[in-house]
């Protein structure tokens, strides 16, 4: 009895010591460190918050550091961010080239390839048009241009506001966009397109080479497929190295951004920023609805799976920079086939700019209201067409959306000088719409993974049923004929 009491006391003290050890400050810090090591999104989120706070401290809002020195300090703090973006930009062209070729070449047949390409392109065009319509509709509903005073416009643009035409404002040169766009699709020098980083041309070259590989026999295509597989593996290794810099890079880039922008620009354009963000949230809800109804996937699980990608896209403002992580997320966390993810994600990073098209719709209506220009149905149709067409050729790099916006403004007679009004807040909107662009690419992956997979499986099931059914029918027929023969023989006897 005494021994049992002693053993129970020992166990009690051992459990108590283990409880104290597990709840010690050191153990809690170890758990926190493990949590940070496993969850990239949490590290990026913390880095974003610290970067904004550091930027406010060093910038004009804090007033503790001279603006000249603050800008220099911000540049040095952003150095890891420049290295991070440089590494990703260095490998993005070979990765896009190899991934698209492998994605196309991995198709089992030319019919499956045609189906995937046609469905993906059609889906991109339709969703981009819907996104632009959402932006235009939200801008007409909220009317953010009414909250901007004429004094702000005059101080930002000076006397340029006096030279505004209130007519229809359609520029006939906009009709030459197809010839300009199509003329630059097929490069005369493919190596020059790869060297200069012309992403749309790189995508088209890769698709053509991939289709050619599908048409070849296995012996002829295997060497090139093996080489491109090695190129893709090398690029993904560099991406893995660069991901270790991601939180530090986000901290540095956001610190520099906050120092340069300040808080005044955000407050002055709050309604416009709110309109764009509300429109992007509505588009994101539409994406989740598509995931739920079309892809038949839990939208909450989808958000949980893509949070790393969205946060990194928000921080870098580049769809191309996060493309390797998007492919990895699609395959490992969303269960998308490599033949789909390696084709859709690089293609989507080049031509699927839903968030950017939405932003261009909101910005066009906003500046039209600021300048007092009424856009009719024809001008709105031109805006939608230009936004969809421009998103196809928009490079997936930070800040390019503002250049495309200037082209759209010119096509409907709105002074391009109005871009100066929204330049101050474009950076944060660029970050937000890039995150939505990347989410749209991953939604497309899930949709295509379901659509392309269903019918081949049904055909396989039907053929298997036929194959299992025919032998029975044949054996049954043989039995019948044999019995008939024996019956006839016995009757003859």
From TrEMBL:
One of its GO terms (biological process) is dicarboxylic acid transport. One of its GO terms (cellular component) is plasma membrane. InterPro entries: Na-dicarboxylate_symporter (IPR001991), Na:dicarbo_symporter_sf (IPR036458). Residues 482-493 have a biased composition (Polar residues). The keyword Protein transport does not apply. The chain crosses the membrane at residues 40-62, 82-105, 117-142, 199-217, 238-259, 271-297, 400-423. GO terms for molecular function: symporter activity. Its main location: membrane. Keywords: Cell membrane, Membrane, Symport, Transmembrane, Transmembrane helix, Transport. Residues 454-481 have a biased composition (Basic and acidic residues). It comes from the Archaea. It is found in: Cell membrane. Residues 454-493 are annotated as: Disordered. SUPFAM superfamilies: Proton glutamate symport protein (SSF118215). This is Dicarboxylate/amino acid:cation symporter. It comes from Methanosarcina mazei. The lineage of its organism: Archaea, Methanobacteriati, Methanobacteriota, Stenosarchaea group, Methanomicrobia.
């Amino acid at each position: 009895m005494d021994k049992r009491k002693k053993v129970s006391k020992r166990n009690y003290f051992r459990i108590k010591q283990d409880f104290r050890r597990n709840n010690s400050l050191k153990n809690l810090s170890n758990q926190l460190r493990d949590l940070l090591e496993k969850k990239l999104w949490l590290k990026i989120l913390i880095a974003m918050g610290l970067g904004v706070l550091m930027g406010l401290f060093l910038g004009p809002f804090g007033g503790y550091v001279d603006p000249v020195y603050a800008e220099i300090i911000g540049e040095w703090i952003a150095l890891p961010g420049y290295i991070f973006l440089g590494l990703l930009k260095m490998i993005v062209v070979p990765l896009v080239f190899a991934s698209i070729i492998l994605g196309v070449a991995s198709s089992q047949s030319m019919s499956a390839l045609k189906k995937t390409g046609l469905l993906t392109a059609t889906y991109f065009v339709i969703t981009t048009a819907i996104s632009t319509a959402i932006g235009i509709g939200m801008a007409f509903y909220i009317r953010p241009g009414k909250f901007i005073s004429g004094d702000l416009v005059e101080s930002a643009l000076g006397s340029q506001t006096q030279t505004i035409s209130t007519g229809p404002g359609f520029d006939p040169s906009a009709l030459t966009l197809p010839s300009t766009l199509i003329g630059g699709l097929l490069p005369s020098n493919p190596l020059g397109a790869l060297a200069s980083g012309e992403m749309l041309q790189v995508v088209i070259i890769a698709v053509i080479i991939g289709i050619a590989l599908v048409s070849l026999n296995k012996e002829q295509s295997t060497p090139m497929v093996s080489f491109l597989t090695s190129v893709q593996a090398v690029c993904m290794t560099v991406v893995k190295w660069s991901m270790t810099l991601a939180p530090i890079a986000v901290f540095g880039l956001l610190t520099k951004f906050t120092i340069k922008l300040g808080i005044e620009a955000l407050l002055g354009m709050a309604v416009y920023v709110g309109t764009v963000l509300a429109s992007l949230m509505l588009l994101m809800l539409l994406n989740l609805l598509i995931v739920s109804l079309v892809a038949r996937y839990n939208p909450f699980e989808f958000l949980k799976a893509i949070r790393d990608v969205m946060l990194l896209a928000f921080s870098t403002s580049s769809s191309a920079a996060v493309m390797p992580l998007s492919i990895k997320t699609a395959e490992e966390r969303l269960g998308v086939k490599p033949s789909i993810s390696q084709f859709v994600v690089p293609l989507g990073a080049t031509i699927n700019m839903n968030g950017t098209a939405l932003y261009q719709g909101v910005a066009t209506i906003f500046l039209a209201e600021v300048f007092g220009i009424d856009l009719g149905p024809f001008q709105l149709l031109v805006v939608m067409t230009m936004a969809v067409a421009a998103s196809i050729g928009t490079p997936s790099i930070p800040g390019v959306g503002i250049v495309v916006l200037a082209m759209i403004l010119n096509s409907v007679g709105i002074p391009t000088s109005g871009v100066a009004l929204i330049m101050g807040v474009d950076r944060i909107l660029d970050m937000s719409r890039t995150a939505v662009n990347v989410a749209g690419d991953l939604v497309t992956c899930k949709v295509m993974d379901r659509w392309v997979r269903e019918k081949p499986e049904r055909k396989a099931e039907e053929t298997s049923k036929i194959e299992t059914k025919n032998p029975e029918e044949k054996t049954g027929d043989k039995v019948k004929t044999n019995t008939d023969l024996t019956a006839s023989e016995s009757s003859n006897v």
